Amino acid sequence: MADVVSLMDIDEDAKDKNHFPRPNKGKSVVVAGNPPDAKATPWVEKYRPQSLADVAAHRDIIDTIDRLTSENRLPHLLLYGPPGTGKTSTILAVARKLYGAQMHNMVLELNASDDRGIDVVRQQIQDFASTQSFSFCGKSSVKLVLLDEADAMTKDAQFALRRVIEKYTKNTRFSLICNHVNKIIPALQSRCTRFRFAPLDAIHVTERLKHVIQSEELDVTESGLAALVRLSNGDMRKALNILQSTHMASQQITEEAVYLCTGNPLPKDIEQISHWLLNESFAVGFRRISEIKARKGLALVDIVREVTMFVFKIKMPSDVRVQLINDMADIEYRLSFGCNDKLQLGSLFSTFARARSALVVAAK
């Protein structure tokens, strides 16, 4: 940080954990246990952590931020990492701890993907930062500016924000939240304490899902829970959204129900498709994969992605495996740009035909 962080005086009596006013802009938050309509509330918001102790993982980061907050030494923060890993929930929990019922006076929350231009920095942010801080019982406290999706800000806006951060450090703290830290200019990064939020471990996702399942009294099988964790890929938001949507579609949440709801191919389908790719002729395999795609509504890009993961389980020479995975990565890349599915399915068979030839040579 360029400036020395001044101490913050926080009146502990002003905290009220049961009251959380809506911020000015950005993500709305619903207090767990007291939603306006429990059935209509998305579970992502209903079960959003309300305190730092409730955050599912990253205890080293959470404990560090908690200690800085308790000691009134909170610096400017840059929280970055993949979606659904607890970045926004963490900083909102910090704001609740600091301000309690006065949060609506002390916090400016903006989503930089909407408010991304230099005018927002010069007007909304600077106006908020330049006003006198709200006082708790005569004691002055710093205010907090939350910039979600900060990597969507224009370069001009980021350079303008750099100067605002320097100018108002004494009475305002800035918290930048983003997915891609490389899109934040070095001048901003150097003024913030950086924390990287990695994808959540399966055990943390499982524990949180079990809490929601118990609270909602859901009927979830072990295989269904494992499917939820597997498909979430460390994204807690995605896991909760899949759980809620599957519950809406099926009374019992099984592995098949989860995959059917998300449109992902079942593991047994991927195993069957991989068998066809490795053993069937082009004409037979192409027809069968086309049929299962149409019957189950599968996307070829999902099939390629899952088959790529399945290849790691197949015993084969490492050089053949690497070449096969690289070829499938090229197919997935082309599909992401809308290339013809039939052409790419033919390319997939061609890739496996070369791998089969290499395996035959290696066997001799």
Question: Could you characterize the architecture of this molecule?
Answer:
The protein is an alpha/beta fold. It has three domains: 12-196, 3-Layer(aba) Sandwich (Rossmann fold); 202-262, Helicase, Ruva Protein, domain 3; 267-363, Zinc Finger, Delta Prime, domain 3. Helices cover 53% and strands 9% of the residues. The chain has helices spanning 43-46, 59-70, 87-99, 103-106, 118-130, 155-167, 186-189, 202-216, 222-232, 236-249, 255-262, 267-279, 282-296, 300-311, 318-336, 341-363; strands spanning 77-80, 107-111, 135-136, 139-140, 143-148, 172-178, 193-196, 219-220, 252-253. The strands form three sheets. It has a five-stranded parallel beta sheet with strand order 2-5-6-1-7, sandwiched between helices. Strands 3-4 form a two-stranded antiparallel sheet. A hairpin with a 2-residue loop joins strand 3 (135-136) and strand 4 (139-140). Helix 10 packs across helix 11. The longest helix has 23 residues, at 341-363. It is elongated. The model is unreliable at 1-36 (pLDDT under 50).
